[in-house]
Amino acid sequence: MNGKQRPSLNVFGAKKENSILVPNMPLAVRNNCQSGKWTMGGDKEYGSKLSMTILKFSKFFGSLGQTQNTIWGQIWFVAEAGDLPKNVAMVTYIKGQSLQEFNTLVALIQARGIEPAEGIFVPTFAKRTGQKTGKDGVPRAVNYYVLEWDWTEREENQWEIVEQAAAALLDHADLLVDVDGTRQMICLDNLPQHEVAMIINSLQGREKTKANLPRLADPEEEEF
Hints:
Blueprint: E1 29-32, E2 37-40, E3 44-45, E4 50-64, E5 67-82, E6 89-95, H1 96-110, E7 120-133, E8 139-152, H2 160-172, E9 185-187, H3 193-208
Antiparallel strand pairs: 1-2, 2-3, 4-5, 4-9, 5-6, 7-8
């Protein structure tokens, strides 16, 4: 522009250098059990490879997508490597076998006297075979994917993202809320086990009063 100062716009703002962007509206990432890939924004596929730093984990009970009344793990994370965008906070949900394996891994790391969030989580899509009952009442074999979890300690040159994550949580923890994704869920964090049991029994009992619809033989087939 021949030395003239360019005009500027300040509508959305931009990520600061060496920081993690926490969007005002959550970026929901789906672990698609049918394709074995991560999808986002209208089911756009981003591949299956991912290493993540976890910013926040919460437990919920309720319904999401076609899956009704089950326990969910809500994971806020930033991708360190793989096919998903980097330097931005995202949220995903896991259940069933994927959640059980995640919980087992976290407990085993904690038992070693280590905070799991200080390491790198690596989820991998693993193929499984189950059964689904069709509208004609005939069960058929179906293939689907679950997430298997691995975890690695950080090298000396991998700690910068932990500092960025801590700063993001300090400044933007209030944005790590997914109102849309949890609109049919109840948060179970910090509740006594007897209250959790009461909530689950109450909602499951209410569901039994509805029409007795056919269910999948393996609930993993409807993984979010």
